[in-house]
Structures are given as C-alpha cells and as structure tokens.
Amino acid sequence: MDSIFQILGRLHPLMVHFPIGLLIIALVFEIFTLKGKRKSLRDGITLLVYFGTAAAICSSIFGYILNVNEAYGGELVLQHQKLGIATSILSSITALLIYFSAKNNYEKLLWYRIMLLLTVVSVSITGHLGASLTHGENYIFESLGEDDENYDLEKLSATLAELNGLDSLSESQQENLNLDVRAILAHNCYQCHSEYKMKGELALDSKEAVFKGGESGKVIVSGLPNESELYKRITLPSNHKDVMPKKGKTLKKSEIELIQLWITHGAYWSDRAVKVFDEAPLALSKPNLPAERKESHPVDKIMGQYFEENNITWPEVIDDRAFIRRTYLDLLGLLPSPEEVAEFISDTRPAKREQLIEELLLDQKNYTEHWLSFWNDLLRNDYSGPGFITGGRKQITDWLYASLMDNKSYDQMMKELVNPSKESEGFIKGIQWRGVVNASQRTEMQAAQNIGQSLMGVNVKCASCHNSFVINVTLKQAYGFASIFADTLMELNRCDKPTGVLSKVSFLYGELGSVDAPTVDERLELLSEVMVKPENGRLYRTFTNRIWKILLGRGIVEPVDEMDNPPWNEDLLDWLASDFIDSGTDIKHLLRTIMTSKTYQLKASKYKSQEELKIGTYVFNGPVMRRMSAEQFSDGISQVISPMFYGVAYDPNDEGLSARRIWHREIKFDRDVLPEPGKRYFRHQFELSNKEIISARALISVDHSFVLYINGQRIAEGQDWRKVHKVDVLEYVKPGKNLIAIEATNEGNLANPAGVLFAMKIENEAEHLIEANTSWISTDQVPNPSWTSIDYDAKDWKNVKNYGSNNWDKLLDFKFEEDYNTFTRASLVKQHPFLKALGRPSRENVATSRESQATLLQALELTNGEFLSATLEEGAEKWLDEYGEDAELIVEQLFQKVLSRSPTASEKKTMLNALGDQPNKESIQDLFWTILMLPEFQFIS
Amino acid sequence: MESKYNKTRRDFLKEMSAASLAAAAVSIPGVSFLSSCDSPAKMAASADTVILLWMAGGMAHTETFDPKAYIPYSKGIESKKVLSTFPKVPTIVDDLYFSEGLEDIGSVMDKGAIIRSYKSGDLGHILHTRHQYHWHTCYEPPQTVQAPHIGAWIAKELGPANPVIPPFISIGQRFTVGEADELKAFHSAGFLGSEYGPFLIPDPSSGLESVRPPKGMSLKRFEARYKLYKELASKNETLGKGSDYQRESLSRSMEQSYRLLNSPESKVFDLSQESKEVYDSYNTGRFGLGCLLAKRLAQNGGRFISVSTEYEPFLGWDTHENGHLRAKKMKQYIDRPIANLIRDLDQSGHLDKTLIILASEFSRDAILEGRPGEKVKDQVNQPDVIEDEKFYGMHRHFTDGSSILMWGGGIKKGLVYGKTADERPCSSIENTVVIDQVHQSIYHALGIHPETNYKIEGRPFYTTPDGHGEAILDLFT
C-alpha cells in the first residue's frame, strides 16, 4: 500500500509539467482569439483547460502524497502546497465557467478570461516555488557579503574543459583536478561529512576517510564512477530520498562531471593542503597610481579612474557648512559653534579645508575622547559589564587614553596589545565568568578570537570549535594560535569534546615567521613582532578599511571583520594601507589622507535600501549617510542645550577627592540591602584648634536630595545629585567642636541606590580635609528637632555604610576649584540606558559596527524618556535666562547651534508660531525636541 | 544575517498579495483549511502569548512543588536529615502534593502541568546570573557572540501581537542590584539587534509611565509637539529630495513610538483600571502586581512577558540562611497572585492561547552544592548539627531536580511529568529535562520552527545550541 502511494507521490514532479504547459498554451491561444479572431481555436482551448485542470488537481494530490510520504519540511513547501491548491481551485473555476456557458460563447465572458489569466499566474508561481524546492533556493540574504558559494565555479568549468576527453592526465593535472574536487566536497559535503560531523559514518575531508568509506562500505571505486556509491548518490534525481548533498539540493552539472572525471582517472589524492575558500593575499604592495589623471589627490586619482570605469561623473562636493560639520563630527565628535561655522565660511584661503582638518587633528583631548568610543568597541573595553565581579576582566582605558593622546603609531599600539604591559593586558586577558566554561571560550581562545576579529579581520571563532565552514581556518590552527597565550599545553577540543591531540604553537599565517618559544612571554614578544611586519598586509588593510567605513559609511571590504571578502576597489584599499605603513602607521596621517580627498567631501549618496550596499551590487557614488553615534548625539545636546552627563566612569585626570558615597546601613535578613525610599539623618562631629579660621568651603551632592546644617544652622539644600553644591561655610564653622548634620532623602517607590558625597576644606594654621566616611553616624528614625545641634545625644545612631562609587559616575565637578563650561563626554561614562538605546553596544564581545537602523525602543527613549526630557527642561530654563522672551533670537540661535545654519523663512514662521508670543520653558523645550529629532541633525550627511 | 525557517504566515500573505492578488484572495480563506492538512508536527501554534513567572535566586523544589519527608525543626537535628521543612498538602489533582503554603496554586493545577525533573546546566562554581543567563538564552556564557534572550527570539519571529504593545516585556527586575552587569548581559536581544530587546518595567505600578507622554506633558502638548516635528521634517530640504532607507527607518520608528504613546491601549499598563477588589487580591507586593500587569497584557495582545520575583544576591529565593522562614514568606508572596492570574485568564478565555511557565535557575538543598558527582565549591556554611533555626532550610545551590510548572497554551491539564528521588540526593530519576527541551517546547507551542537560526559572523546561530533539543510533546494535548 505504502509503495503505491510512494510511486504516486514520485509522479508529482512528472505530473506538474502538464498543468503548466496546458494552461499556459490555453492562455496563449486565448490571446490569439482576442478581438474575435481565430474562432477555430475555441474547441482546442476548451480541451486544454479541461485537461489542464484535471492535471492540476492530480498534481496537487500527488504532491500532497509526496510530502506526507517523504516528509519534506519548511515554509517553502507549505507555500508551494497552498499555491498548488489555489491553482487547482482557480483552474476549476475557469473550467466551470466554460462548462456552464452557452456553447462556445464563453469567450464573451470577461470573467472567464480574468480567471484564466489568474490561473496561469498562480501556476507559474507554484512552478517557481516547486523549482526552488528541487533546485535549491537562492535567497538574497539580508546583510552584506553573505554568499555561501563564493568559490570559483568558472575555474571548475575551465578544468573540466581542459581535461575532458584526455586519456591520461599529467601529475599537475591530477593535482589540480583533485584540489577542485576537494573544493566541491568542502562546499557541499563537509557540513555533514567531516571529522566533526560524520553522518552515515562518512567523512570526506581527508584522504584516509574518503577511501575508508562509511557505514555502507567504500564510497569510491577507483576508475569506476558508476560503481562508486558517492557518484551514484550525487546523480540520483533531486527529490530522491537518498540523493546527495540532500534532497532538494543537488550538485551542478559541471561539479558532477568533474567528480566523475576524477574517479575515472583513478581518484588521485594530492598531498597539498586545499585552500577551500577564497583568501585575501597576505602581502601588500603599493599599487601605482593611475597615470595622467587630472585629479591631484592620490585617492581621487584612483577614484577618478573608478568613476570612469563605472561611467559615473564625479559627484558633487559638499558646501562649507556641511564640510565643517562633517569634519568636526568625524574628528572630534562635536558640533562646530556658530562662530566657527561663520568664520570658516567667510575664510577665503583656498586650502582652508585642509587647514581645518589640520587644526582639529591638533585638538588632542577632544580627538581622544571622541575616538575612544571606536576603540572601546573594537577592543571590547568597557567600564562595567560581566566578568568584573570576579576579577575576570580588566580595563585598558588608561593605556588607550594615553595612546590616543600621544597619537601612538598603530604598529606600536598593536605590539602593546599583543605583548602587553599591566596597563594594556585587559585585551588579551579576555572575560572569565565564574565557573567552568566551554573549551572554545577559554581565555586563551578568546585572545586568539579577538586578535583575529579586531586586528586581523579573520574569524577564528568558528574554528575554535571545529574546522571552519566559511574560511580556511582549522581547529588545529585555532588551537595553535591560542596556545601562544597558554602556559600549559592545550588539548584540542572538538565541539567541547576532548580529542586527545595536543596543540602545537603556531600563528595563523606561519609564513610571517615562527612564534614558538618556551615561555608565554617570549611567545608574545615574537607574536607582536611577527604581527606588525609590513609583510602582514592584512593587519594594515583591516584597520584602513575600518577607518574608511567610519568616515564614508561603508567599508571597502564588508563585513569589516571578514577581510577575505573581495574589496570593491582593491587598488584603493592597498594604496591607502601601503601609504599608512609608509607614514610609520600614523593614524592621524591616515585620517588626513582620506579626509583631504575630494572623495571624502562628496555629497552623501542616497540608497533606497540596504540591499544596494551588498557585495556585488554596491557602487560607490559618494559616502553613505551615517547616523550620529550615541556619543555624538549626547555630546551635541550637552554642547548646545544642557549637559547630559555630569560624572565620568573614567577620569583621565584622576584627581584627589574620593568619590565614595555613604548612606544609612540597611539590613534585611541579616544582609545589607539597597536603601529603601525615605528620609535618613546623618551626623559628623569634628574638632578644630583655637587658631583663626581663614577659609572654609564645603562640597555636597546627595542622591537624591539634602538639607545641610552646620552647628545647627541651615546652610544649603539641593535636589539634583548630579550637581555639586559648593558652599562657602566660613561663617558657620568655629574653633573647637563643630557638627555637620545632613537630612537626606532617597526618592522613588522602590529600594534604590542612595548616597551622600561630602567634602569640606578648612584652612587655619594648616589645611584640613573632612570627607564623608564610615565614622559618620546615621538613623532612619525621625529625631528630635535638636538633632542638628552639637549637644544632641545621638547614642542610638549607627555608623553609616560606605556605598563606594560604583552606582554613580564620578562627578567631575567634585573639587574645590571652580571649573566653568565643562560637560562630560559620553565616551567616558558607564553604559547608560539612553546610550544603549541609541546603539552603544554592551562590550562583552567585539562589536565593530553600530546598528544604523532606527528602532522603536530607541524612538520611545527619545520621545518619552525621562532622561532626555529632564535635560531639555533644564536647557530650556537656561535658554530662557539667556535669551529672555525674544522668540526670534531663540529660533535663530537654535538653528545656528544645532544645525549650523539660519532657518528658512518658512521654518522660522513655523517655529515662531509654535513658540507663541511669549516663549516659556515648555514651548522652548518642545522646540529643542523637535529640532533634535530632525534627520538633518541626526544624520551626518 | 541570513534567516532560515523564520517566515511567518503574515509575511507569507504579505508577499503573496504583492505577487498576485488573486492567489492571495484564494489562499486567505484557504489558510485554515490548508494548515489542518499539515502533518501535526508542523508549525501549528497552540499559544500566541507566553508569560514567564521567574523565581529568581534558586527555588528549592523540596520546599515548594515537590515536597519530600517533612522534618520539623528541633534544636540539635542533623542537617543531613532535613529534606523538607514544610508538611505536604494536597492539590486539586489526585496524588499531587505541594508544600504547605502553595494551596492556591495547588487549586489551579487541574489547568496545567508540572515537570519535576529539570536538570540545570553543570557550570561549575555557582554564579546565579550565569545559570540565569543559561536558562534565558539557552547558551552558557561566555559566548563568541551575544546570545539573545528567549523573549527576543520570540519578538523577532512573531513580532507584536498588538502593534502598540512591545513584544518583549520584562517586569520586576531592577538593574541597580548586585550582579547587575551580569543581569544586563542576558536581558538583551544580543545579535538580533536592540529592536527585539526587552521593554523594561522594574516597577509594575509605574508601568504606565513608560508608555505615555513624558511626565508633566499634557496630551495636547504632546500631540502639538509631534505635529511640529512632522511639519518641520517635511519642510526640510537640506538632505535633498528623494528617499533613503536611513531616513525612512527613522521616521517610521518615530511614528510608531508616537502611536504607541498616544494610544488608548496604553491603559493596558495602568493597574488603576482594575477594581480595588481585584487589585488587592493580587497585591502581595511587586511580584503580585507584576502578575496583574501580565494578566492585562496577555488579555490585550502581549507576546512575551516575564514577571520576576527579582534577583538580588542573597534575597528572594536566594536563601543562604533562615531558609525555612524565608521560603514561607516567598510562598506568601507568589501563591495568591499566580493562582489569580491562571484563574482570571481562564475565565476571560485567554488561557487557551497563553502559555504560562513558572521556573527558577536551579534548586536548593540543605547539604549538596552543585549536584551528586559534580559537587562544586561550597558557598554556604551549613553546620552538621543545627543548633539555631537560622540554619534550618535549604541553603546550598542544587542543580538537579527543579520543578517547572506550565499552564495553558496547549499544555495538558493535570499532568505530572518526571520524578525526583524521595531520599537525598533528591535528583531527577525519570524523564530528565534539560534547557534545550524547555525552549523547544515553548517554541513548539508558538509554532516557531525548531531549527530557526540566523547567520552571524559566518555561522548559523540557532534558538537552541546547534538546533539540538526537541520539544517535549508529552506535555501537549
């Protein structure tokens, strides 16, 4: 019974051709009969539709049986099935329309013709889906550069053409043939048949395994393809259950023929290692610039030729306003001030653009605090995150900050990362969570993976589990690489299972030199020397390509971590990378070289979808429009409206005062817990000598709010813990005993971090510093009103707890000196929900590209997030103070500061309208929000 | 990213209507008929919504849903004698007993199933957040790429059930507590992109604030502000004419957000819409109100909602001492609201399509740290002889034999699956379940293909490692 169904099912692929053929011919004939011509075709059309319909119904039934019997799966099958049935229904309706109409008069029925047309559309789509099932789908992948079968089919055809018909092959021909065959096997078979995964006990990735065969015996009979199981399986019909590579996916004709040829000629196996996947050359030589081009800049000469070859005329260059914005944002991550913009625009020097770049490159601090984010992403360096809790992670910010300030050469930075000092060891140290981790995530392996990805643009991650399926890196190589960092011998683990094989120290690119030495330190030194050799073009191409992407929106190679993919302009990449080496790997030189080119200064090109950026389709027409990074966006707001952040997680000029906060110790189940909301009372008594007091200043910041008393006198209060209150207290302190009392409130509905930050400097015959610490006492009981006086008896009060500084960034303003005009750069703050929403990655893994697409969660954060809203409100107050109620001035200033231009007449009208006659805090705040949400602000164009 | 098996029926219809209106017109009414022809294992969903009730900190199975011999406290008893510190009580299901204090949940077990044989990962020296990461993502950290939370996978595959309710909502967990960075690490969409990340509501009673205009802004002002933005954006010509994908996506997301914040549906997040009686019946604290919010979301098109008792080191279910006393309190905290949630959704007819899961990262024991044969470093001092009631309870981390409860969404009613030993070690001894199976069962209920994967950095990344693990079909009707 089953076998009858099986036969019926397998008739489906045969059967389906009838409805397709019959119905399409019916439609063609029908077209011939338009305008009442060729009435003689009528009988034929009737029959074609009847038979076509019957065939469609049969096909659907057989198809259903086939699916049930042979357990196809997947959405594609489901769609095919639905459409198959739809076709049957549509053609049945067509047939019925014919059947029930008066004799051969149905051509008058418009409905009949529509139904016939629809039937044919439906059968065509069904057929196409069916073909996709049989011959494999060819989906266009969403992201850049995903193409599984990027090996050289043309080369296979060439080999085939060369060898076909020859009686015997030379040794080199045998070699080539075998390597081609192995490439076919690698791309089509390894996923199931390799030492990693041996379906049917068969592996095809080594000589021994191939000739040993699988569970049903040998798969190759030398000289006799037709008796070789392997050949038999790949030549079965594509829907056969035993067909290889798998049902629905067969090899191409040329591939099959090549395998046949190989077996016929004795199935020779070369000893050479097969480079299965395309690999970028390691070496780098500086290409000659195209001769006789009118462009002056080297990059433009190369691009001029590129444009010519692609029939593109040089696109338009941006104006001065756009240029100064772009340059400021790219080099410093800041907006230019209206004055700077005006001055630049009116500057008449011909080389003013080059001069601006030069000038900005000299602003070391802002350059450093902007580019820090790029490096933090690349080296997954962060101020918080998993791993820190058990000492399994280390920051390298000190080293990084100093390196950028000094414009340390790239090769030197690489050496220091790979062969690190204490300051830079965090990068290869990796992240260690408590407990046992997967073998492929040992910290030594993480070092190999991160150096591979970040610095060399090669994916070692796949190969740390098994031989890679996408590039030429093997498990052995990954372990060899990781062993450089290991102080004991490493045993190869395949997919977390020990293999018993011990690794041998080696670098992925052995041709650069040996890295083998007895100790880790010696090996790291060797590796650092080998890696930075100019012969290692990969290191320099990888970095150059990253910089190109940052500045122009799309890499010359994409994805930027997969440098074996083809560049869209090889000369451009190689020239820039070589020039970078020639400059002594000066990072600022590379930036300058790219940015002074006309190519960088082109108008952003418009792409309707990301598809247009894919390998193969992408054509350079100008930079890709970039979204401001989370840091650029926040810093922009801080610059022109009001600071977004007041504290840093990393303080480059780490100065004196401690950032520790204290709070009442709260206990639940014998454990210290987060403070509950409510008021807490703090006291601290201190004694001064009898000498005259010359000065006394206090600094205070309390999360969330406070009232400060000294010796019973109310002195100051504050609501915003991000601000430091600086109070002159000279008239309140006195020689002898003194008392500081603070009433502090923790707000909110839930327990949450709270803390008092306090320091006081008193000068008499000497300088005294009083800081909040665990000698202070506190209570959560409402005390008697005299609690602020020195005589109050505080015997029930307990010592406070030191809450450290972890929950709060360090307030830069927490110092006795006045410091105007500072705001905290977003690159220096700990990951923050606002920054996260705008795309700053959590740096547990290397993340070299930020998400460019806007998301709903992001828009929500911008639209109703309390954080942004509060900043804008604060800004509105400041603006109101500064510009009063002068609506015109406010609008003009806003456009100048935020967009670096004046509003158009119509924009001005709209804005003034919104502000009303009397601008107030709310209307200004809404204006801020509106202008910040504009694409013109959010995109670097 | 290349995606496989991740087309939804909606996408299918959308594509087809573009390809051929007629074909779609025929296939829309045909859908239900056609899918009933499918073999049963294929993509049919028994649930639209998932609620995960997260017992954070390691809930001892022997003190809750899998009671063993009750040993009352007496000064001087030996630790090794202590199996359960509560008597067992019957539930509505014959022969199914819970620990005292869970009577309410016991009374709704005729609507759901219990798995008594969950075995957590063996990750060595215990770190709660690492096990929680494993439970929520199915991957053990660290990973070479950032693994998505199960809620993010579901958000990605199915999208929102109601366009203005975010598809992945996490209720009850603050990120200002200890191990916060580790908690953040898995409350994430990982490589899927932040679009699918969690919408965080640490405090359910202020959930409304996240979905309405900013504090202090009237609806009128909010609308005017958006109108102003639209007007100004339309006038702006600096970026030139013509469209590009960057601007399109920005303006689309702004519009979505405006629609959500301005939508009457934001009332779903407003617990004050409930009668005082209902509110009070749930209100055992933040977790209870979280259940109430989850109920409202499930009734109005939530997709994946987690409600956590909240992880804070040494608090909640993380009992390192006073285990008995604290388990008692935790039971009071969860018992009533969970039973109410099940009952209310059942009554409103939503339980059929809502899969509710109760789980914890691992269990606890009085003696064993880790599990038999895989003992790891002790983190709690537990005297051999108990002289102080403080030492009476389950204080060590035990990684076998946990209970998982499930209701609705196609789950069998009254089922008991798996079993643990009645004597120490109270490990699973029948139908042991691991995390891959739990995830695949959830995906199965939702009709998400078991081999759903995306290509990231050249490798396919599956919902469960290498696509392994099969749904436990025995759990489903």
TrEMBL record, chain B:
PANTHER family assigned: BLL7424 PROTEIN, DUF1501 DOMAIN-CONTAINING PROTEIN
| UniProt xrefs under InterPro entries | Alkaline_phosphatase_core_sf, DUF1501, TAT_signal, TAT_signal_bac_arc
Q: Which organism is it from?
A: Portibacter lacus
Name of the featured protein: DUF1501 domain-containing protein
Pfam families tied to this protein: DUF1501
Residues of the signal sequence? Answer: none
